[in-house]
């Protein structure tokens, strides 16, 4: 996991400063990342995404790839910050997949409004904000200035399925 996490974090590189930002799908493809066509099914009784007026809300998304968590455990115990950042990025990809399933095209997103990142944390782990930066940086790369958002980061003792990170998004369309 650590080698893959480092690869994903290195892949993101510095944020683009150009005012002309390509379509989110093109940016993600350029990074070798893409929201999957298949939305990750909920692990409980709820739906993955809801549209309310001009806003789309995702349920919490776990770092699932090909039907499996890419990592399990808690940050500061079995996982480091880079692992957490990679998990946060996969959570965002799954959230974007859910959003795309609702609106059809990520180019319709006018703004990422709010991101909430939950980090399963060991007792002494206090770098939750650094883990959440993985999600924020990916959204900034994908959506340019429209990817700047309000964010909450919460350290928790456990997440569903022993996931290390969970992310939910609110976007305006």
Percentage of residues in strands:
15-25%
The helix count comes to 4
- Biggest sheet overview: 5 strands, mixed
Helix content: 25-40%
By secondary-structure content and strand pairing, the structural class works out as alpha+beta
Mean pLDDT: 86
Report on this model:
The chain has 173 residues and is of the alpha+beta class. Helices cover 33% and strands 21% of the residues. It has a five-stranded mixed sheet, covered by helices on one side. A two-stranded antiparallel sheet has the order 3-4. Strand 3 (64-65) and strand 4 (68-69) form a beta hairpin. Helix 1 packs across helix 3 and helix 3 (81-103) packs across helix 4. The longest helix is centred in the middle third of the chain and has 23 residues, at 81-103.
Feature tags:
173 residues, alpha+beta, five-stranded mixed sheet, 4 helices, 33% helix
Short characterization:
It contains four helices and seven strands. It has 173 residues and is of the alpha+beta class.
């Amino acid at each position: 996991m650590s080698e893959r996490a480092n690869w994903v974090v290195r892949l993101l590189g510095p944020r683009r400063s150009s005012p002309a930002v390509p379509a989110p799908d093109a940016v993600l493809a350029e990074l070798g990342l893409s929201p999957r066509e298949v939305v990750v099914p909920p692990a409980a009784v709820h739906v993955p995404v809801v549209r309310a007026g001009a806003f789309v809300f995702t349920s919490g998304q776990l770092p699932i790839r090909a039907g499996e968590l890419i990592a399990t455990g808690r940050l500061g115990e079995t996982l480091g910050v880079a692992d957490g950042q990679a998990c946060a990025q996969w959570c965002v990809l799954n959230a974007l997949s859910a959003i795309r399933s609702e609106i059809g095209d990520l180019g319709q997103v006018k703004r990422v409004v709010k991101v909430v990142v939950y980090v399963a944390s060991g007792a002494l782990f206090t770098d939750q904000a650094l883990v959440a930066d993985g999600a924020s940086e990916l959204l900034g790369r994908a959506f340019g200035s429209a990817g700047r958002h309000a964010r909450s980061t919460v350290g928790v003792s456990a997440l569903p399925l022993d996931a290390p990170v969970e992310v939910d998004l609110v976007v305006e369309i």
